[in-house]
Specification:
Number of helices: 6
Largest sheet: none
Helix content: over 70%
Strand content: under 5%
Number of strands: 0
Order of helices and strands: HHHHHH
Distance between the termini: 31 Å
Radius of gyration: 17 Å
Shape: elongated
Length: about 140
């Protein structure tokens, strides 16, 4: 019975950490784009913003999953490494967004919140997922 209780405690801790990292991902995308992201997605139904945010959330989820899957036997060390790799993934996705914005024409943030579908959003999404995959691979 103590194994189940211990497992539930660890799952709760990893779940809470994962939720914090996902919220940070939402905040990060909101900071990188003009306007209010929740309004763009939920009120204005902006698909560009939704694809960009979704890719960031999938990326963070992949990093957290990989970190938990390959976690250290020491629970505290595993939780700390998950937080560290999750935060690093968020920072690297933000840097990749800024670099992509720098090397391409136009303002990427403005494109993301444009109501008209734009192919640059798919490039941004792929960039997010690629950075997350690189971070996840480095964990294993």
């Amino acid at each position: 019975m103590s194994d189940i209780v211990n497992g539930l405690g660890r799952t709760s801790a990893y779940g809470a950490l994962g939720l914090v990292l996902l919220v940070l991902g939402i905040v990060l995308v909101d900071v990188l784009t003009p306007g209010k992201l929740p309004k763009q997605i939920w009120e204005e139904r902006n698909r560009n913003a939704a694809v960009t945010l979704s890719s960031a959330l999938l990326g963070v989820g992949g990093i957290v999953f990989t970190s938990i899957w390959t976690t250290y036997q020491d629970f505290g060390k595993g939780l700390l490494s998950t937080a560290a790799f999750g935060l690093l993934g968020l920072v690297l996705m933000a840097v990749a967004f800024l670099v992509l914005d720098w090397v391409t024409p136009g303002r990427l943030g403005a494109i993301v919140v444009d109501p008209e579908p734009h192919p640059a959003v798919w490039v941004t999404a792929c960039c997010n997922l690629s950075v997350a995959a690189i971070v996840a691979a480095s964990i294993a």
